[in-house]
Amino acid sequence: MTEPIYDQIGLNYAKYRKADARIVQAIVDYLDLPKSGIVGDIGAGTGNYSQAIAEKGYQIKCIEPSEVMLKQKNRHQNIQWIKGDAENIPLETGRVDGIMVILAFHHFHSQQKAIEEMARVSKRNIVLFTFDPREVDAPWIADYFPEIWEGAFNFFPPLSEVKKQIELVSDKNVASHIFELPHDLTDFFAVAGWRRPEIYLDPVIRSCMSAFAIVNQRNIEIGVKNLKQDLESGQWKSKYGYLKKQEKFDAGYRFIVAS
Predict the structure, then answer these.
(1) Considering 75, 79, 173, 258, which has the largest number of Cβ atoms within 10 A of its Cβ?
(2) What is residue 257's DSSP assignment?
(3) Do residues 105 and 1 lie in contact, with contact meaning Cβ atoms separated by under 8 Å?
């Protein structure tokens, strides 16, 4: 995995990247394991989702390469932390019942090798929560931060390619499922503020989003300035105020489930 990126975005990660209960429930449903099941969390970060899953009774093996993330790791009696990479998972073959990868797949150095490793160590389902900008029209965020939206097409592989890779390696049935973002999402990833534009004015919140960390910061500053002006003048409300009436929004986030 790309450790420098995680080290860069990880300093305030635990504060604003809190596990969202609806994503947690979707993970549990798609893993489809008994409560005593062992789950591998690959690219676990600080373990925000691992802890939420562990609290439901599952045993979690957290695999994470970044020292910055590991220093903020969540501790739980059902969690074992292991420093390691997705491309060389330090677990025995068939060691876990299921695998989850939450918004980390795009950071893996070799996605093909990571898939092979996940298929090797998992007995049953593999669940990836990821993003594909090709699935939807560009949201308003692209107006202010076009470099982020355009970069996502290179940063995130097409869902079709990921599904095909998993099918070839794992010999499992693979399907993708739409996850519409709730307006009150507690995990502040890139498009979490689709109905809360003010969150992008906060540099600390932006620092927890990898999409903002990897692009030209001068361009980000220009986007923030324009967004702030439009919020104060009412221009944003005039163009996008209709979003305030929506409870959920399809921003291109998907679950890929191999079962």
Answers:
(1) 258
(2) E
(3) no
For range 164-180, the mean pLDDT = 93
Distances (CA, A) of 8 to 52, 75, 98, 149: 24, 22, 29, 20
CA dist list (Å): 48 to 60, 176, 192: 12, 23, 16
What kind and span of H or E run contains 256?
Answer: strand 253-258
* Residue 142 CB neighbour total at 10 angstroms: 17
Q: Where are the beta strands (DSSP E) in 103-252?
A: 126-131, 174-178, 181-182, 248-249
Mean pLDDT within 205-228: 91
Inter-helix orientation angle 111-121/159-170, to 10°: 40
Q: Which of 187, 193, 182 is nearest to 227 (CA)?
A: 193
Q: Which of 144, 158, 115 is nearest to 211 (CA)?
A: 144
- Domains located in the chain, CATH noted: 3-138+148-190+247-258 (3.40.50.150)
For residues 222-251, give the mean pLDDT.
97
Full-model pTM: 0.90
- The mean per-residue pLDDT over the stretch 233-249 comes to 97
